[in-house]
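User: quick one, fold this
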Amino acid sequence: MKADNAFVQQYMGLVRTIAQKVRAQMDLTCDLDDLIAFGTQGLIEAASRFDETRGVQFNTFAYYRIRGAVIDGVRQMAYLPRRIHQRVRAAEAIDQITQMAGDTRAASPEQGKDAAAAAAALDETLSQLTAAFVMASVGQGEDDAPESPEDSLMDAQTRARVTRALDVLPDRERALVQGFYFDGRTFDDVAKGLGVSKSWASRLHSKALELLREALEED
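Assistant:
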């Protein structure tokens, strides 16, 4: 798919909408035009990588690439308060989970006809999202001062639970969680460091979150 000027203008409304939503959801004060610029790069990348044979519409495929580029741009900003760090990590994790769930449904459309399978898939996705939010809440930015003594106590208790839960993970899954949630690296960078593709890293991420959820429930 050719990403010429006409193509970019055709999808600029989508880019702007995503940039506005990310800015509002993360309570950012940066210039909207900067986020739009990040999103435009994501749109161009989406055009170069789109494969129509996979059965996914371009708008759906582009949405995650654009949003991911905007969030990655936010991550690169010089200073972000702790709450923004948490929201960035959570947003990236959510996108990885929901995108993988969407890819799975596209690859196996017959599953959509099975109500039990659909319910199980939804339950798995929700459980992974819960674990992702817990990881995001205790990751990078831990040295920032909590807003209250109660927050400090809850942070310490949650961090202790997470530390115990991490011990159940296999080496690669633990390395992925450590790099993404605690070292502040992008998902793509962590995947490259592990020597795996982004799609395979997404599978490792999903497996890690499921194991973490189970470990946290047992703790």
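User: anything notable?
Assistant: The mean pLDDT is 77.
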